[in-house]
Write a structure and sequence with these properties.
This protein is mostly helical. The protein contains 3 helices and no strands.
């Protein structure tokens, strides 16, 4: 990223020695080292988190693709099993019951206009 060689570092050190002096240079060097270390840790954490998020997104996409394929297979196998079961339905259910559809449950409608009939009364039988 940055191309800093030994000569550039030596020039920075000499300038820092002239500006800060020999008394404050070690303290400033420690502070600069801590600051650079903190920046490196922050960049490292950021790249680690970014890599984790990318891997998680790739995994979600793979699961989405696998889920779509899996649902098609499940649907085919269920349809096949139902077709197979229909072939053997006559062995389980007698012929007269197999052909008759079950009646739909009756739906009660509320009485309109205050008229009441025997069918509208609530069922009190236990």
């Amino acid at each position: 990223m940055f191309d800093i060689g030994f000569v550039e570092l030596l020039i920075c050190g000499v300038i820092a020695l002239l500006v800060l002096g020999p008394e404050r240079l070690p303290t400033a060097a420690r502070a600069a080292g801590r600051w650079i270390g903190g920046a490196r840790r922050m960049v490292s954490q950021f790249t680690t988190e970014l890599d984790r998020q990318l891997k998680a997104e790739e995994l979600r996409e793979e699961l989405r693709k696998a889920g779509d394929i899996g649902l098609d297979d499940v649907e085919k196998s269920v349809r096949g099993a139902l077709d197979e079961a229909k072939k053997y339905e006559h062995m389980v259910v007698p012929n007269d019951q197999a052909r008759k559809p079950k009646p739909a449950p009756a739906i009660r409608e509320p009485a309109s206009g205050g008229e009441s009939s025997e069918n509208d009364a609530p069922d009190t039988r236990s």
